[in-house]
Amino acid sequence: MENDVQKEPSNLFKLFFGTSGINADLQQKINDLVPSIIYIYDVNNKKLNYVNKRITDILGYGFEEINTWDDHLAGLVFVDDKELVKKELERVAALNDNETHTYNSRLNHKKGDWRYFRTTGSVLRRGKDSTPESYLFIAEDITHTLESEAEVRAADELISETEELLQFGTWSQDAVNNKLYWSAGLYKLFGYTPPQNKEEISLDFYLKHVLISEVDALKQKITSSIEHKTDFEHIYTITTGANHEKIVSTKGKAVKDENDTLIKFIGTTRDVTEQINAYRQLYKYKQITLERERFLESGSWEVDVQTGKITWSEGMYRLFGYEPPEDIAASSLTLDFLALHQSPEEAKHGKEKWAKSVKESNNFIHEHSITTTDNKIKRLETYGKILRGIDGKAEKVIGITKDITQLKDYERQLERRLAELERSNKELEEFAYIASHDLQEPLRKISTFGSRIKAEGDMGDDNKAYLTRMLVAAENMKVLINNLLEFSRVTQRLNDFENTDISKILEDVKTELELEIEETGTVINAGSLPWLEVIPLQIKQLFSNLILNAIKFRKQGTPAIIGVDSILLTDQEKTFYNLQVDWDYYKINITDNGIGFEQEYAEKIFKIFQRLHGKAEYPGTGVGLAICRKITDNHFGKLFATGLPGQGSTFTVILPVKIK
User: At residue 25, does pLDDT exceed 60?
Assistant: First the structure.
């Protein structure tokens, strides 16, 4: 082989360098420095007349080893490529002088595998009949190049498949010449078959697919991005080559050089039709739900039992006085958060109800009060459904909450109207009884005693006594009739309400009752009393009756000591007394140290003509406290009493600060 190497070094060198002015050793060194395998193939002898040392470096074969083969070239070519190389040699043989032909094939490596080569060949020498006698080949190892190309192709295929699967495509636009290039995925997105080679797309071709009504907005977005060298994003509608409408989202990123000069835009366009349509449907559903919640003053919610976190609808935010979702972070919504809007008693009761429902039932209803962010009191009704896992443990609770404040107000008004009607009916019944019985009694006495006087003729001592008793009975009848008239006149007149100092009314009452107070040694201790919107004459009558009642029912030989104080009702007390939660109320207590009464008669004493004691012992008609009750009803308030025999009594008057 060493001898073969020397056969045509000068001719080979001439082929590359065009001169033979360099000695053979230098020529050989230069040939061995070339990174490719250089070899000359003798067609007739099927031998390599020359091969440089790169064959050993690249394929591992020595020259002596190759010399033992019958066909040197056939021994080098990978078995699966022998037919390919045979045809390529025929193409080389057909070349004219100074022409070359290039092909790819695999050559065997000594270790048993193979490597890819890009081989360029030409005819080196011809015989007398111009038939090629030897070929010159230069084989460049392209194994790594082909592997890289294969990886690139695989990556391109993966990108193409990903684009098709996710319905998007990529693009680039040169900022200088406005050339636009699409990926295969973008062609498919627009309804076209991708071309074999990368082709330029005109901007007009692209824009003609955009819905006419949306073209200007897209152009404006692109122009602004180019002018300011900024990224952009835009959602718009296109019509594909197959005349299908799609909603797409395009994102573009500005690429600039080190001088901040815009080079190009690169970006993606993806089909978001399903997402946008789903979003629109969801938005429409949310708007309908929101309108329904606003109309019904309600909200929906969901609680994760394990974490205690709550998810609210917008209606729930508004029930509590928040504007969703800026005012409060969703992560803050927990059962403890709800307690911030409730009184301690309400919060405790709510947690107990919650724990019991989650443990024992599948559904629950809970009525409770809250204070909104603007300090309004609302009465809410909550319906909940517990969702349990296969193990029976509660996982989630879903439900709705409604504002029933107005409904409760209506209920209270209805109850008040019904109570008034019931009282009115009873009063009519009692009045009819009195008219047929009690009022008849003095009239009978007048008639009887008058008859006796008439029969006697002469006015003796007995006649004088009869006449006296007639006059007393007549006076009693007069008082009774006057009280009944007074009771009937105590009606509600809204136009008579005015903001009044209750302390001033009490002072007026004390002045009017000065004689009774002085004669009985009564002491009245009054604390600070509020200003209230009331009918002054009726409230004055209320205090007068209650103080006279305390004086009348004092203990024998003991001066009456009367205390008057007031306090603002709490939200819990308003709920307890079934009052309107959004009104403010004062509770005024009038206490005495009198004879008291059994608590079982606490309601009886407010009924007209009802008495716990005889007339001889405690004179009166039994109308005064009934008038007091009617006055508090007229003021949308309450009146009730508590007492203990021998220890005194307390009359509690509850009145609103302002009639709304």
Answer: no
Give the tens place of pLDDT for each residue, 592-613: 998 888 888 788 788 755 555 4
CA atoms of 410 and 405, how far apart (whole Å): 9
pLDDT at 585: 94
What letter would DSSP give residue 333? -
Q: Which residue has the higher pLDDT, 415 or 248?
A: 248
pLDDT digit string, tens, across residues 552-582: 888 888 899 999 999 999 988 988 888 888 8
Q: CA 491, CA 535: separation in Å to the nearest integer?
A: 10
Structure tokens at 650: 């307390």
Q: Is 485 exposed, middle or buried (0-12, 13-18, 19+ CB in 10 A)?
A: exposed
Other CB atoms within 10 Å distance of the CB of residue 208: 12
Q: How far is CA 384 from CA 302, 306, 367, 558, 658, in A?
A: 9, 16, 12, 60, 36
Structure letter (DSSP) for residue 321:
T
Cis peptide bond prior to 325, omega within 30° of 0: yes
Q: Which of 136, 65, 66 is nearest to 98 (CA)?
A: 136
Per-residue pLDDT at 27 exceeds 70:
no
**Residues in Cβ contact with 523 at an 8 Å cutoff, skipping those fewer than 6 apart:** 559, 560, 561, 562
In 538-584, which ranges are E strands? 561-568
Output the pLDDT for position 504: 93
Q: Would you give the DSSP letter of residue 96?
A: P
Instruction: Count other C-beta atoms under 10 Å from residue 172's C-beta.
Output: 16
Hey, is 268 helix, strand or coil? Answer: strand
Work out the pLDDT band at 9, boundaries 50, 70, 90. Answer: very low
Q: How many CB atoms lie within 10 A of CB 124?
A: 21
Rounded Cα distance, 401 and 338, in Å? 13
